[in-house]
Amino acid sequence: MRKTTTVVFLTLGFALYGCGGSSGGEPSPGPEPSPGTCPECDWNIEQWKLTLPISRDDFYGSGGDSAAELIPADCSGKQTLSNDTRLDYFWVDSNDKRAHFYVNLGDKGATTTNSNYVRSELRELYNYQTSNRCSSSNQNWAINNSHTLSSELQIEQYPQISGIAPKVILGQIHGYEIKQALVKLLWEGENTPVRVIFNDKFEPNNETCSDCQSFSVDLGTVKAHDNWRYDIHADKQAITVSTTINGVITSKELPWGVPVEANDGDKYTLTKDWLNETFYFKAGIYPQIKPDTQYQNQIFEVSFNKINIEHK
């Protein structure tokens, strides 16, 4: 089976939709969101939910201090993500036609489960056509075939804080209800290679893992304002990651169960136990710097002109 979703951001802008809620029981997926003012969009907003760097209390007026979300369905207590959504943290520019993800590190911010950092980030809803999009429990895929996330993007702004590298995660493979991410693709400055971080093993049920080891491999080096591409691919044989920068492809393959040499010179092995779990892709920005009022106007802004997810 081939399941492909291409996200090419060609819209003119977003504005917020309100949404109703359901009473009692599991909220229903609700009616399809309006396509709004984006007849030329070649992307499917229904396959994503958006996590914001602001709390539910601050964004919705209630709901607690965890990060607010927008979902492309009529979910109780949440506004509907649609092609008309326009926020301080996520918008499509009417001039450059790129989707912009934005975080001000000086704002209070809000985090998600298993994290100390804020984000403006899309989370894949794999079974959006057949399962309730208000819940993520059935929106994940198993590594039984081939799964690829490809993005074209550029760094628009990044913080310049003395003694702190501007680290930001731009793409992920994450296991469902697993604290340890399988793959995190990290940009950390104009003169430092893009780095991909892995966890060799994990603990289920969002448990802390005392003997898990994270390790990383380097890809290409890219300047801010240069357009570039990354690819993250998973299948039954290996994880493959690559960057394409100014026409130069840098690629690394990590087979399951086979020791590979990491940046620190040691060898690590991705356990085949990962193959028994389910996963989802993430794309956007997930800064690896804790917000602080002293960082006011220290900005991460990254724009994407294409996000492609392929399951086949």
From TrEMBL:
Source organism superkingdom: Bacteria
Q: From the UniProt record, which GO molecular function terms apply?
A: lyase activity
Residue intervals passing through the bilayer: none
The family database entries (InterPro entries) matched by this protein are listed as: Alginate_lyase_2, ConA-like_dom_sf
Q: Which UniProt keywords apply?
A: Lyase
Q: Which residues form the Alginate lyase domain?
A: 43-311
Asked if the Swiss-Prot or TrEMBL record annotates the protein with the keyword Lyase, the reply is yes
- Write down what this protein is called: Polysaccharide lyase family 7 protein
